[in-house]
Write a structure and sequence with these properties.
This protein is about 40% helix and about 15% strand. By secondary structure, the chain is α/β, with parallel strands linked by helices. Helix 14 links the parallel strand 12 and strand 13.
Length: about 425
């Protein structure tokens, strides 16, 4: 095998972005950090290709990347930059996310012409992650087709389980490679089952689905089951403790305390008087630290999620409307909760069994209530399902899925190169 190359990794999927370091109220997406860390810890060098066209960022790609690397404590001596897209070989694997390179979660969304051209001309084997692939549906699918991506990966075999994927990507005539979530080690079983509340817990936000999903499928919310629970909070209060909140961009994340300290004012004044880039960057880091010190958490999220999950025997986490499982489902099972979710096939593909290692619901209010009441009255069966789900989640966490992906890609590269001769 050749090199495993990260394509514009300094967007928001692996580590905190450089911009977020200076604005601590912004979110950090940690659910794919493990992919970067896998190669960073395992290999002598980590290979990266950078251009100026990452769709969530502006300015020089390399300057943005080195800011990101420095702020996240990445050793620059371990990083090998690929000079140009032409320097990638047919035996190399290029890994990218669709969102941030060929798609964007928000509008306005300008066509990523340069990325499409580069990827289409790239000789390496191109692997693309499909998280949130439903945004801009048909347009993003067309851009992806034009970029000549070789392999799609996601947490579910969307080609098999998703009508939405099949609608937008009818030209993709193979399976989507399943790369499950690898959860953080902090999600653990801490409280004995007998001491837990004989109820379910539900967490998360209710967000609107992309406009195109509403237009094409009538889907209004990104996580329909969360909306169901939020709308019926009082009716379900005896069996579900809901921590679900409605999305509000003004209060979604941590909010800064507006009271500025003398240190903050001094750094800001020094920053405006400096012209040298390195000095300005140093003082920007100090300013970010000052902001972090005065950041306050929103009350709705001011709780320890691991401790919360360990208080309950069950957790309810429905799928994302794009037919993908949420990482929170696996986090809940790792903490010893029996998972209640839709039966869409992706749990079975990972080795879970309905009624054995998780509880299936058809997504209606009546069925959700019936399932919780049924298992509440069968504590021994419920505890066994929770334990089976926890063991299966830990088994998934211990598997080397990246090695499986690399092996699969290597075989595909050999077949592709043989066909070219």
């Amino acid at each position: 095998m050749g090199r495993f190359v990260f394509y514009n990794p300094h967007g928001y999927w692996y580590k905190r972005t450089a911009y977020a370091h200076f604005h601590p109220q912004l979110p950090t997406y940690k659910k794919y950090q493990w992919i970067w860390d896998y190669f960073y810890k395992k290999d002598k060098y980590i290979y990266v290709y950078i251009n100026d066209y990452e769709t969530t960022l502006q300015g020089s790609g390399r300057k943005n990347f080195w800011k990101w690397a420095l702020l996240n404590g990445i050793n620059p001596l371990k990083v090998k930059l690929i000079p140009t897209i032409k320097d990638l070989n047919p035996t190399d694997i290029v890994f990218l996310f669709q969102l941030g390179n060929l798609n964007l979660q928000y509008d306005p969304f300008l066509p990523p012409v340069k990325n499409i051209e580069e990827l289409a001309s790239c000789r390496a084997y191109k692997v693309m992650h499909l998280t949130h692939y439903g945004y801009h549906g048909k347009i993003a699918a067309q851009y992806t087709k034009s970029a000549k991506i070789d392999l799609f990966i996601a947490e579910s075999n969307l080609a098999k389980h998703s009508k939405i994927f099949q609608y937008y990507y009818p030209w993709y005539a193979r399976d989507v490679f399943v790369l499950p979530f690898i959860i953080e080690n902090r999600f653990r079983y801490l409280q004995h089952y007998d001491k837990r509340k004989n109820k379910a817990v539900a967490t998360g936000q209710v967000l609107y689905a992309p406009n195109n999903l509403y237009e094409d499928f009538g889907i209004k919310y990104l996580h329909p089951m969360r909306k169901l629970i939020l709308d019926n909070d009082e009716k379900l209060s005896s069996i579900i403790d809901s921590h679900i909140i409605k999305y509000n961009p003004k209060s979604e994340y941590s909010s800064p305390n507006n009271k500025k300290t003398f240190f903050h004012l001094l750094v800001q004044k020094t920053l405006t008087s400096q012209k040298t880039y390195c000095i300005r960057f140093f003082f920007k880091m100090l300013l970010a630290y000052a902001k972090l010190l005065r950041t306050q958490k929103i009350k709705a999220y001011d709780y320890d999620i691991v401790a919360l999950l360990n208080q309950y025997k069950m957790v309810v986490h429905g799928k994302e409307c794009m037919d993908l499982p949420p990482i929170s489902a696996f986090e809940g099972m790792a903490c010893g909760c029996a998972l209640i979710s839709e039966q869409d096939g992706f749990y079975e593909d990972l080795g879970f069994e309905e009624g054995v290692s998780y509880i299936a619901t058809d997504g209606t209010l009546a069925d959700l209530k019936n399932k919780i009441e049924f298992f509440r009255n069968r504590p021994d069966l419920l505890e066994q399902i929770a334990e089976n789900g926890r063991k299966k989640t830990l088994e998934i966490n211990s598997c080397d899925y990246m090695a499986n992906l690399i092996t699969y890609c290597t075989h595909e590269i050999l077949k592709k190169n043989e066909n070219n001769f």
